[in-house]
């Protein structure tokens, strides 16, 4: 799949201190995702507030609040309910998403 069809789904629980760095890393990649669905899974910190502010600056960001039962698997399912892409990447840790996107980029020598 090309960059225009890759969606990333990342659950977040109390990640206010890490969201900006994660998104910056994802958006620096050669292969930018079409959407980054970041699910707030019941955070008690300012995660949701930060996501609302960041979505004004980052068109690829699609924050979602998991209003159902919480937990990693449930947050992923909640995020998948909001995906319309051809390819989906799910990651447990915010930093892993950027690394995986880097690994998925097309190689110039792979012709």
Q: Give the N-to-C terminal Cα separation.
A: 15 Å
The largest pleated sheet is described as: 4 strands, parallel
- Helix content bin: 25-40%
**Number of helices in the DSSP assignment:** 4
> In terms of structural class, how would the helical and strand content be classed?
alpha/beta
Global shape: globular
Q: Which series of helices and strands comes N to C?
A: EHEHEHEH
Q: What is the number of E strands?
A: 4
* Amount of beta strand: 15-25%
Which ranges are low-confidence, i.e. pLDDT below 50, for 5 or more consecutive residues? 107-111
Strand order of the largest sheet: 3-2-1-4
Overall radius of gyration? 14 Å
Rounded mean pLDDT is: 81
Description:
- Helix content is 35%, strand content 20%.
- It is of the alpha/beta class and 111 residues long.
- A four-stranded parallel sheet has the order 3-2-1-4, with helices on both faces.
- Strand 2, helix 2 and strand 3 (61-65) form a beta-alpha-beta unit.
- Helix 1 runs parallel beside helix 4 (94-104).
- The chain is globular and about 35 Å long.
- The protein starts with 5 loop residues before the first strand and ends in a 7-residue tail after the last helix.
């Amino acid at each position: 799949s090309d960059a225009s069809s890759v969606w990333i789904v990342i659950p977040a629980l109390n990640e206010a201190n890490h969201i900006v760095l994660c998104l910056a890393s994802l958006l620096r990649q050669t292969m930018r995702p079409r959407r980054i669905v970041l699910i707030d899974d019941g955070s008690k910190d300012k995660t949701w507030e930060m996501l609302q502010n960041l979505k004004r600056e980052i068109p690829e960001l699609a924050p979602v609040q998991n209003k159902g039962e919480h937990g990693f698997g449930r947050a992923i399912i909640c995020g998948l309910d909001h995906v319309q892409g051809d390819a989906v990447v799910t990651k447990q840790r915010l930093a892993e998403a950027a690394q995986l996107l880097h690994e998925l980029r097309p190689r110039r020598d792979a012709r």
